[in-house]
Design brief:
Length: 394
């Protein structure tokens, strides 16, 4: 495994997903400035999530067939540019369009980034993809902190800091992927596609599990800041700190979950994650103390984050001949369901008892995902990644 390249692409993952992590914390500021209701605010998350998800399988298929390294730096640049502009725009359609642009950037980056991480990880894909996933999840931790700091110093125009960071990171990735990759690596995707088999039935079950996690993750990640400001009457800074705590526990859980998956199996870790998440999700909307609610966020984060890298690796193993497509679906298309569900949760909150009722609607979603995970099994034979590494060295 080329640890240097894995870490750099993981850093690129962080710089891409820091924008998605920033958006939930940015929503209360946008809502206060433009008088958006819950459903309208949820529509902005819908714009980002669906744009970043729907087209990812297309880019994934393309990365399986031809070398498309420019997608990674270009994706980081567009993702940061969209979020950077959102704080400067005045109309809802303009903000919506900026977030669509940011989402398309995420769609460009993820399949190529995950495919590259898998390739340079050689026979240690579990470890490599875990490091790659930690980069993305760390972005969800850094995003709220960066929004809080930038808006405190400069107001909403402070979102331009995301565009500046994206410009710097995209230049580094451009150097790594276009100038730092040997010519022999151009044929590596085709070499990988010639090996292994695709288990579409198992991948279909995994996709259902990922859809469930997507609805849970995006629902909680989008409305936790608003939950604290509206239900617990906390300030916006406190709301930003709470979502940072949630994501921080999640990132640590992702590392531990990846290590545990290497020891006991990916499917078992996924089932354990749902077992941790379900009871916490059931009690969370019923507590009246913000401190008790914070404590419940810890098992929720463990349940949602610890299985993430296991899902990505398992998807690539199920579709061993189409790693890019598997990455596009697991990191993209399946997540679009969460983006669609987010404004629906907002509608429930606006019309049927507020955010606690909306949170209760997530319980049956978790139950479906937990039951589906019982049918997952680890492939018997590992994906023959070492051959890809040999192809690179030729």
């Amino acid at each position: 495994m080329d640890i240097r390249k894995v870490c750099i692409i993981s850093l690129g993952h962080l710089s891409c997903d820091v924008n998605g992590g920033a958006l939930p914390t940015l929503l209360p500021y946008l809502a206060a400035m433009h008088n958006f209701d819950y459903q309208t605010a949820g529509g902005l998350m819908f714009a980002y999530s669906v744009a970043s998800s729907i087209v990812q399988p297309v880019f994934g298929l393309l990365s399986d067939r031809v070398r498309t390294p420019i997608f990674a730096p270009l994706g980081v640049l567009l993702a940061g540019l969209g979020i950077g502009l959102s704080g400067l725009l005045e109309s809802y359609p303009a903000i919506f369009a900026a977030l669509v642009l940011s989402g398309i950037g995420g769609a460009l980056f993820h399949p190529e980034g995950a495919r590259y991480a898998s390739r340079v990880s050689a026979g240690r894909q579990g470890t490599g993809l875990s490091i790659f996933s930690v980069g993305g999840n760390s972005g969800f931790v850094a995003g709220p902190l960066l929004v809080t700091a930038a808006t405190a110093l400069f107001g909403l125009p402070g979102t331009l800091v995301f565009a500046l960071l994206a410009l710097i990171m995209s230049a580094l990735l451009f150097h790594l992927l276009l100038w730092g990759t040997p010519p022999a690596a151009k044929d590596a995707p085709r070499a990988a596609a010639a090996q292994g088999v695709n288990d579409w039935r198992a991948f279909g079950i995994l996709t259902l599990v990922i859809m469930s996690r997507s609805i849970l993750f995006l629902g909680l990640n989008s409305y936790i800041p608003l939950y604290w400001t509206d239900v617990f009457q906390a300030g916006k800074v406190d709301a930003g700190l709470v979502i940072t705590f949630f994501c921080g526990v999640g990132v640590a859980s992702n590392v531990l979950g990846g290590m545990l998956a290497d020891r006991i199996g990916y499917s078992r870790v996924i089932r354990m994650a749902y077992a941790v998440c379900l009871p916490a999700l059931l009690f969370f909307p019923q507590v009246g103390s913000s401190w008790l609610a914070v404590l419940l966020l810890a098992p929720l984060a463990v349940g949602l984050f610890s299985s993430f890298s296991a899902m990505v690796v398992l998807g690539q193993k199920y579709l061993a001949r189409n790693v890019g497509l598997a990455s596009g679906v697991t990191l993209g298309l399946a997540l679009s369901v969460g983006g669609i569900a987010t404004p629906l949760l907002g509608y429930v909150a606006d019309n049927y008892g507020g955010l606690p009722t909306a949170m209760l609607c997530l319980v049956p979603v978790a139950l479906v995902g937990g039951l589906a995970s019982c049918f997952l099994r680890d492939p018997e034979a590992p994906t023959p990644a070492p051959a890809i590494e040999k192809e690179e060295r030729a």
